[in-house]
Amino acid sequence: MRRLGITRSSRKAGAMALAVFLAWGCQNYSASGSSSSGGGTNASQPKQLKLDLNKAIEVALPKFQRDLQPAAFKTTDGKQGWALRIPGERPIATPAYADGMLFVGGGYGSHEFYAFDAETGKLVWQIKTSDDGPTAAVVEDGLVAFNTESCTLIVVEAKTGKLVWQEWLGDPLMSQPAISQGRVYIAYPAGQHGKGHQQHPPAHIPQNHQQAAKPPQQQATQAGNNNGVDESDVQGSHRLLCADLRTGRHLWERTITGDVITAPVVSGDQIFFTCFDGTSYSLRAVDGTVVWKKQNAGTSAPVVANGDVLLTEKEQRGDKQYEGLKRYDALRGAEKNEGLLAREEAQYLGENKGGGVGISAKSQAALDSSVGFSTAPEAAKLKEANKHLGVSTVVGAWAYQGSRAAYSRGRMLNAQGKYLNSLDAKDGRFAWRAEVSGVGVGDNQQIFSPPALGDQFMYLGSLLGHLVSVRQEDGELGFAYAFKQPMAFQPALAGGNVYAGTNNGLLICLKTGDKDADGWHMWGGNAQHNKEQ
Q1: CA distance 265 to 453
Q2: What Å distances lie between residue 225 and 3, 219, 244, 292, 413, CA to CA?
Q3: What gap in Å lies between CA 218 and CA 230, rounded to an integer?
Q4: Rounded distance, CA 530 to CA 526, Å?
Q5: How many of the other CB atoms lie within 10 Å of CB of 151?
Q6: Residue 436 CA, distance from chain mean position
Q7: Does residue 22 surpass a pLDDT of 70?
Q8: What percent of the chain shows pLDDT beyond 70?
Q9: Comparing C-alpha atoms, which of 89, 220, 136, 212 is closest to residue 449?
Q10: N or C: which end of the chain has fewer CB within 10 A?
Q11: pLDDT, position 204
Q12: What CA–CA distance (Å, rounded) separates 69 from 361?
């Protein structure tokens, strides 16, 4: 049998690891939930695996002599990599890869944004942003777009970091932008924009380039057809903005109920997103017209594949929270399954539980305080986010990604609580499920980030500090390494390397030696946040 992800030199070690890590069971699960959660009848019998993180190969990271200087490491089974320390020891979002470079912000609370050589980790350029908290970036057509939590959308040249344009939108911005066909899409809080806020170019921009940093001419137009959506929607707290990527010119805006979970998602001529209050939307990309809107208790950004929208949703029964997958028709928004698929208890979504972002309540409070939030601003609408997802801080919402699924070869794949799930995208039946165990793993935790997909394997970071690869087809383990550096954000994949940011300011590159780890170049896989295999 061909074992992808295991090199010739480490085949023996890999075989031993597989024997230790995976054990097959015979528990029965239904298409609408596991037997443990009382969902449905036993319509399918998935392969049930056990993944013991206690057996992960420990990796000793080198001591860092200076900030931003990469240092090499080697695993005991022969893989190599590098790591570097970003000043401030703040949570680092998913790096973005393009043309041999990595683009990454300095973390929540920082004023820096960096470009590194993707193979060596050497610093290529850095800029100082006008306000703090760079999100994960998206890259397309030689331009890098990102926003700061407080409170600006920024577009720079990928090669040089030269500012193209920026615009102050509102405070706070807790999601990241998306790019498609020369347009950038981003959510922002209504009522603040345009009230005397000045634009300032990053400090390194020469005087003769500052003209580009002035506020773009605002030519926002409200799409005129709500397609039957209640007009009370115009009272929503936030807006989704569509702007020209190269000039910043506003093309349209749409009123929405709250900030967007992680990012808008672009598929074809539609924009899909879920707000922190659980409301999900589909808009026409050309003018922002609402295609459909559902108050469906969504808990993650959507994934769109083969005409279906894949969402994770919350269901409350008494004082217990449950989470699972649901499919919708992309064009009409019609539900395609009854009940939640792979439903499991998810107490981390309970009020004041933190949403499973992997940053302690104490650290969240300290990080918010460091940027001037003794309490969350009203514009963040975190009362609704806390009630729905358990997220009550700005940094918690900034880092929250939920159990977002990925799509590959007719399968829905996601990390949900302490489980890894693989389901048939057409009928919702299980292919396999892996249960995670080990020191620090609890019944009500979101253990892993959303998966990043290679060709045959999926790659995940854990809040306990692991990087793991699992084969999509059957759940077989590729590798598991314990870096002991907590990771909240989804990793990126390029050129056989896995790139991950940690919650305490490290950027890690694991060189797998396998071409499988490629093609997932930023959060969600691409600039549309909707990569599918």
Answers
A1: 17
A2: 53, 18, 22, 12, 35
A3: 27
A4: 6
A5: 23
A6: 21
A7: no
A8: 84
A9: 136
A10: N
A11: 37
A12: 31
Of 343, 367, 341, 344, the C-alpha closest to 354 is: 367
Phi, psi of 305, deg, nearest 5 = -155, 135
**Beta-carbon-side half-sphere exposure of residue 454 (alpha carbons within 13 Å):** 27
Kindly report the CATH number that applies to the domain delimited by 8-511: 2.130.10.10
pLDDT of 228 over the 60 cut: no
Domain regions of the chain by residue span: 8-511
In 3-state terms the chain splits into helix, strand, coil percentages (rounded to 5) of 10, 40, 50
131: CB partners within 8 A, 6+ apart = 111, 148, 150, 151, 152, 168
Residue 230: is its pLDDT beyond 60?
no
Enumerate the β-bridge partners of residue 344: 323
Those residues with Cβ within 8 angstroms of residue 436's Cβ, 6 or more apart along the chain or in another chain: 51, 53, 418, 419, 420, 447, 448
Q: Which residues, in sequence order, are CB contacts of 472 under 8 Å at separation 6+?
A: 408, 409, 411, 413, 422, 453, 456, 457, 458
Cα-to-chain-centroid distance, residue 366: 23
Q: What 3-state class would DSSP assign to 400?
A: coil
Amino acid at 42: N
DSSP string, 315-363: EEETTEEEEEEEEEETTT--B-SSS-EEEEE-GGGSTTS-TT-SS-HHH
In sequence order, the β-bridge partners of residue 49 are 434
Give the single-character DSSP code of 4. T
Q: Contact, 241 vs 179, CB < 8 A?
A: no
CA 365 to CA 532: how far, in whole Å?
Answer: 36
**pLDDT value of position 41:** 31
Q: Name the pLDDT band for 192 (thresholds 50, 70, 90).
A: confident
DSSP for 409-467, please give it.
Answer: TTEEEEEETTEEEEEETTT--EEEEEEEESTT--TT---BPPPEE-SSEEEEEBTTSEE
Tokens 């108050």 appear where? 295
Distance CA 433, CA 469 (A): 14
Quick one: tokens of 477?
């383990």
pLDDT confidence band for 46 (50 / 70 / 90): confident
Q: Nearest CA to 232 among 255, 216, 252, 215? A: 255
Helix (H, G, I), strand (E, B) or coil at 365: helix
Q: Are 274 and 256 in contact (CB under 8 A)?
A: no
pTM strictly above 0.85:
yes
pLDDT in tens, 299-344: 999 999 999 999 999 999 998 999 999 999 999 999 999 899 999 9
Phi-psi region of 333 (alpha: psi -120 to 50; beta: other; left: phi over 0): left
Structure-derived torsion over alpha carbons of residues 330, 332, 336, 339, reported in degrees to the nearest 10: 100
Q: Which two tokens stand for residue 122?
A: 């050497």
| Residue 526 structure tokens | 């691409």
The partner residues of 228 in beta bridges, in order of sequence, read: none
